[in-house]
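Researcher: Here's a chain I'd like modeled. Treat it as a single chain, no partners, no ligands.
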Amino acid sequence: MGCAGGRPGRHPEGVTARPDSGGPAADAMARVLARATVDAVQAVGGYAGGVYLRSGTAGLLRMAALTGLPGPLFRPWWRMHVNRPYPVAEAYRSGQSVHLPDAETAMQRFPQLMAGLPFPFGSLYEPVTAGPERFGVLLVLREAASGVPVAAADRERMRAAAHHLARALAALDADGIPVFWDGDPVSAPAPATARGARQAVDRLAQAVLSVDREGRIGFVSAPARQLLGAEAAELRGRVLWEALPWLGHPAYEDHFRAVFLAPEPVHFPARRGGPASGDWLSVGLYPGPDGVTVTVGPAEQPAYAPESVVRPGAGLGSPADRASALYRPVALAIALTEAVTARQVSAVVTEELLPAFGGRQLAIYLLNERHLHLAWETGFPQGFLSRFDGVALDVRLPGVETLTSGRPMFFESMEHLAAAYPGISLDAHVGARAFLPLIASGRPVGSCILGFDTPRGFSPEERTVLTALAGLIAQALERAQRYDNEAALARGLQAALLPHRLPVLDHVVTVGRYLPGTAGMDVGGDWYDVLDAGGGRLALVIGDVQGHGVAAAATMGQLRSAVRAFVFSGHDPEEVVRGTNRLLIDLDPGQFASCCYVLLDPETGLARAVRAGHPQPLLRHPDGRTEVLDLSGGVVLGIDPEATYPVAELHLARGAVLALYTDGLVEAPGVDIDEGVERLRAVLAEASPAPLTETADRLVSEAGHAADRPDDIALLLAALTDGPRGEAGA
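Model: Modeled as a single isolated chain. Structure tokens:
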């Protein structure tokens, strides 16, 4: 349904609609949308919600109804193209529900959403469809439930609410009322709240105002007349930033967005005449499900006041283009999703953030047991930041207080910084600094310091963008810290399970190599082993467990132990692999691994080999001729409990080298695996077979792309010698 221009008015039933929006048909649709929005919010315990409908422009959705949020604050999100990487668009495109229980989940799936709204809130999105007709998307915002998925009952309530709305819209469509929207959203107000004990509040020196979820002022305490220069009657019923225009300045918008989306209180200094003039006041915002309590009291001028903002902005209600700066972090958000370790996150911030704002210095401190530890620095004098490493949270420093207060701090000159923190050590006498708190889903992660070589102001748009970036960086660092902890555990497990020394037998030399992948420095499940099988025979084993991390390393350890048990029990090669396959299925259904097992008699050169979905071994003959063996084999381990594994026999002459390897040595992005195998064969053919340790190092270095390994590598070489006793190299 289209809505044309004009000023908003109040619908007789409480819905904010446009009086010139199309007559009775528009009013009917407005009532349907408003009722459905309020019902959905109440059904799943939310505090805000809305409906996006298709518009008259192909591929464009428009917000048609809104409750629990001040519409002008969220004007940049009134329009949504269906091909954008946002949850509303995905729900509409796919016809499937999207549930984001917390900010971390939203950051992982929709980093662009969190770039513009870096606050801890949960959200649910349900497509509104009737048969083949896709009308739009119903959404509800509610408090974040960190790590707790959306309950099945709430999912069903959302589906029921969307289904009910779809039926109502289909009925309107059947009555000849086109179901599309081309105007501003109608607003359905939340129920009015109690005003509290007036006498107790009036005794406070601060002005206290109660604001509903539309931003409209309800209760006004007596001190407001003196502090705000307005009578209570002049304020009640008006939108806060219309009644007090200086609070609608762009410099303060992000504070209001924060409290309307997340339950944490917000405090900030503000000027009665806007950021460039007037008396300083301290503003406190205390959110709740049914509104926000606003406190305003006198305050001293802060040392980090935004004095360079000399021209008042257009304020709330300005065109949506003014908010385009919110989308500047999108490139960084995408890059952060690909950064795995804390160092990678810090490197991305250095590469993407500093050039965008003309910065020269960057430092990132991470919180560990109530102390901040320096994790990354660039551009500062060598050793300067070391004095702040390990500082406690009770020390008065800007990098500490920005984290404990949760608010960013901007110093437009080093003089401002020195005035705010007398006696603080400075790395320069000229410049500017920004201190950003790194908080992820309400949990403190650390702080970030941006340095500039010359004094500079920070515009409202820059402050908004930097605040959004701080949230993105914190989410990425928190994820990276968890990854680093798991990777360290996996590496320790891997190191403990891989053989530290290979057995030494007559007439044979064995060498093994293992290298983790460089893409994220993750640890996989590749392994090798060499076992004394008795009777002068040697068992050579190599395998590759699906996946990476602790789970893969643990599965690898179980398989290695199983193979050793079967070998030492005297089983033949086919029984070793078949028994390991059944054990893996019993231990972890759904997990699988490839494996190659060779039982070698070094004295005769006879080898019996079994393959389970593993790459074919290589054999270098004494004359240098090197071939890719063609050994028959069975399926990978963990798939079929009844699988059989044929045994292939081959003969190794004195001076021959047998090479077993995992696919990480021959695979590369965009390159056929056969090309990788041929490259490995050529390197082995050209390499001198003695000493075998140098041959192994050359294979890993030249064939394995040591500088860029997307996967881990395991390599096991065995060479037959004329001497009675060879050397082993692990």
